[in-house]
Amino acid sequence: MTGKQLEFDQRVTRLNKKHHKLNRGYRATMRSDGLVVMKPQRVRSAIPAKVLLLCLVGFFAFKGFLLSHLGPSAYDTRVESLNQGTSVEKAGAWIMQADPVTVLLSTQLNKVLF
Fold first, then answer.
1. Is 10 helix (H, G, I), strand (E, B) or coil?
2. CA–CA separation, 47 vs 49, rounded Å?
3. Is the distance from CB of 58 to CB of 84 less than 8 angstroms?
4. Which DSSP category does 32 fall into?
5. At 40, phi and psi to the nearest 5?
6. Which of 3, 10, 16, 109 gives the lowest tally of CB atoms within 10 Å of its CB?
7. What is residue 27's predicted lDDT score, i.e. its pLDDT?
8. What is the DSSP string of 86-106?
9. What are the sequence ranges of the domains in the chain?
């Protein structure tokens, strides 16, 4: 009897999971035997990954252009002055610090622009 009860509990758990997935959206498909089956649809992100990647690339390009235009010493001075401010400014200074990707982009921009 316990084997049957365990099997029943597993089926109930599986059906509850499927019901929870169907609550987020579903589509009806017909199998080859004519039975209509509801399949859950995947929830898509509001912001596509391509957009996030493009923003990240644009941010690094902006940092590289800024470092190229100001020069390393002036850029570091501005980041250090930003680091002396409030906690939000300190977070901005940490984000804007010169990293290897920014330095590489800056050197490549210096070759092309100047």
1. helix
2. 7
3. no
4. T
5. -70, 145
6. 3
7. 87
8. -HHHHHHHHHHS--HHHHHHH
9. 2-40, 49-113
CA dihedral (95, 99, 103, 109) positive or negative:
negative
Give the pLDDT confidence of 82-109 residue by residue, as tens digits.
999 999 999 999 999 999 999 999 999 9
Tell the residue number behind the tokens 């649809």, with chain if given. Answer: 41
Nearest Cα to Cα of residue 65 among 76, 75, 78, 55? 75
- Angle, to 10 degrees, between the axis of helix 100-113 and the axis of helix 49-70? 60
- What mean pLDDT comes out for the span 36-49? 83
67, pLDDT greater than 90: yes
Q: For position 78, what pLDDT does the model report? A: 94
- Cβ-in-10-Å burial (0-12, 13-18, 19+) of 75 comes to buried
> What is the signed CA dihedral for 4, 6, 9, 14, rounded to 10 degrees?
-100
Cα–Cα distance, 16 to 14 (Å, whole number) = 5
Task: List, for residues 1-29, the tens digit of each pLDDT value.
Answer: 588 888 999 999 998 988 888 888 888 88
